[in-house]
Design a protein that fits this description.
Blueprint lengths: L1 E7 L2 E7 L3 H8 L5 H53 L9 H15 L2 E6 L4 E4 L12 H7 L4 E4 L5 E8 L5 E9 L2 H51 L16 H50 L5 H32 L8 E4 H18 L3 E6 L4 E4 L1 H17 L6 E8 L3 E8 L21 H7 L5 H11 L3 E7 L3 E9 L6
Parallel strand pairs: 9-11
Antiparallel strand pairs: 1-2, 3-4, 3-7, 5-6, 6-7, 8-10, 11-12, 12-14, 13-14
Helix pairs in contact: 2-5, 5-6, 6-7, 7-11, 8-9, 9-11
EC number: 2.7.13.3
Enzyme class: transferase
Protein name: histidine kinase
């Protein structure tokens, strides 16, 4: 909390203000940033599998060594069992000492312990000399007496290998039991594990360092974009993300998209400012006229009635012009904000166009302009008939207004299996190439003087464009100065949202 101190009525006042919650959250969740999430993900993906693989390999190596030692101990036990059987060790005491020396020598050479048991599990001979004369009842001995050679690792880490001794008539007269402590295998595995851990630690450090810089490479451009977007949100639409990478990837695409958005926002802001300026200008003109006319009446004495009537007619015309501008502005605002719902229904475009021509024919005849309607086929489309009629009527009305006397206007209706096409072509004054892309801007006029003569507000084409867009269609302009203009409208025959 930060204190604010000031004097009020001679008294010291201290107000404690809590810190910005967003700043507190930002500090609290700093380590949840994309950079740290990427780093943690890379570490988990890069190091954890290595640890799992190393652990699996280590256990496999250990199991392999133990299995090999089991095979070796069983082989040694079978050799001893064969010697005992061939020399009748359990029955002939004369050869016992010689054979025991051989067994002891083998035990010392391979560093394991050998026990010889009779069929009652009594230890006859023990190279360790500690269990001689004792009874040893362990699962390995019992299984060996059942004619099953067995080698098994014990809980204390030792390995027991038991092999039966054959007697007369293939009977089992005893067991050879070898015990080995596996210390050499444990030491070998520990040595491998130590070296493996050092290698893994080195790899982990390398992976963390590489991933740290990789995460920075990925997140740094995003941070720059965030700063640019934040500045744009404050109204600095001139901000741009600097793109230096020659490699085309998603981050570069994001930066370019951010710059494109900035261009559009800057354009929208410029259009908004121009729009406000145009609205002010358009409303200022009739207001100025009204003020001049009204002052002329007020400042003159003994004004004739005829002059009153004339001035009031002029004032009424200017008021009508202001009303038309305001109504068109309200229509545009409603269209932009989608406040005006479209009432889609099956509309016979042929009947709609014929109705438009019928209403505008007197205006064309007054200028001796020939209107020709070409219908390629009957077309029924899902549309808002009232709004679409207004949009197409604006196009035809403009074509008549900007076509000199004795000119012509051709209206064409066609369709394919998906879209309806309406074109309005005239032999009028045309539009310069540099102006074609701007004719749908609000209050934009190619020839301001001539447009004022026609009485237009400069908003008709903007309303037409917005209406066609709301119908999920498109509008294109083809024009050449002094030769005429063709405007092509496309609208879907079926609308996806009704």
């Amino acid at each position: 909390m930060s204190p604010n101190i000031f004097l009020q009525n001679g008294e010291l006042v201290i107000i404690l203000i809590k810190g910005n919650k967003h700043e507190i959250k930002k500090k609290k969740f700093y380590f949840l940033s994309l950079r740290w999430i990427l780093l943690a993900t890379y570490v988990v993906i890069g190091i954890v599998p290595l640890l799992l693989i190393a652990s699996t390999i280590l256990h496999s190596v250990q199991d392999y060594f133990i299995e090999e030692r089991k095979k070796e101990l069983l082989s040694q036990a079978n050799v001893i069992s064969g010697q005992i059987t061939s020399h009748d060790y359990l029955m002939d005491k004369d050869v016992r000492n010689t054979l025991e020396e051989t067994i002891l020598q083998m035990s010392q050479e391979h560093d394991f312990r050998v026990l010889v048991l009779d069929s009652s599990c009594l230890v006859v001979y023990d190279t360790g000399y500690s269990d001689a004369g004792k009874t040893v009842l362990i699962p390995e001995v019992i299984e060996a007496l059942q004619n099953k050679d067995i080698a098994r690792k014990q809980e204390d880490g030792r390995v027991y290998a038991a092999v039966s001794i054959s007697g007369m008539n293939n009977s089992r007269v005893g067991v050879v039991l070898i015990s080995d402590d596996m210390k050499d295998i444990v030491d070998t595995i520990a040595n491998i594990a130590q070296k493996g851990n050092l290698l893994l630690a080195g790899l982990a450090i390398i992976v963390i360092i590489v991933m740290f810089f990789m995460s920075q490479i990925f997140t740094e451009p995003i941070k720059k974009m965030i700063k640019v977007i934040q500045k744009m949100s404050e109204g600095h639409f001139e901000q741009r993300v600097q793109v230096h990478s020659r490699i085309h990837n998603e981050v570069v695409d994001l930066a370019l998209a951010c710059n494109q958005m900035a261009d559009q926002l800057e354009k929208v802001e410029s259009t908004r400012q121009q729009f406000v300026s145009n609205v002010s200008h358009e409303l200022k003109t009739p207001l100025s006229s009204i003020k001049v006319l009204s002052e002329s009446i007020l400042l003159q004495e003994d004004v004739p009635k005829e002059m009153y009537v004339e001035f009031l007619h002029d004032i009424n015309s200017e008021v009508d012009r202001m009303a038309a501008i305001i109504n068109d502005l309200l229509t545009l605002v409603k269209l932009d904000q989608k406040e005006v719902p479209l009432n889609f229904k099956e509309t016979d475009l042929n009947e709609m166009i014929e109705g438009i021509i019928k209403r505008l024919l007197p205006l064309a005849q007054e200028k001796k302009i020939f209107i020709h309607y070409e219908k390629e086929r009957d077309v029924v489309a899902m549309a808002d008939e009232m709004k679409l009629t207004l949009a197409i009527a604006n196009l035809v009305d403009n074509a008549i207004k900007y076509t000199p006397e004795n000119g012509s206007v051709v209206i064409n209706l066609d369709a394919d299996h998906q879209n309806a096409f309406i074109s309005v072509a005239d032999t009028g004054i045309g539009i310069p190439d540099t102006e074609v892309g701007r004719i749908f801007e609000r209050f934009y006029r190619v020839d301001k003087t001539r447009d004022r003569e026609t009485g237009g507000t400069g908003l008709g084409l903007s309303i037409t464009h917005s209406t066609i867009m709301m119908h999920n269609g498109s509008i294109k302009v083809y024009s050449k100065e002094e030769e005429g203009t063709t405007i092509l409208v496309r609208i879907p025959i079926r609308q996806s949202v009704l």
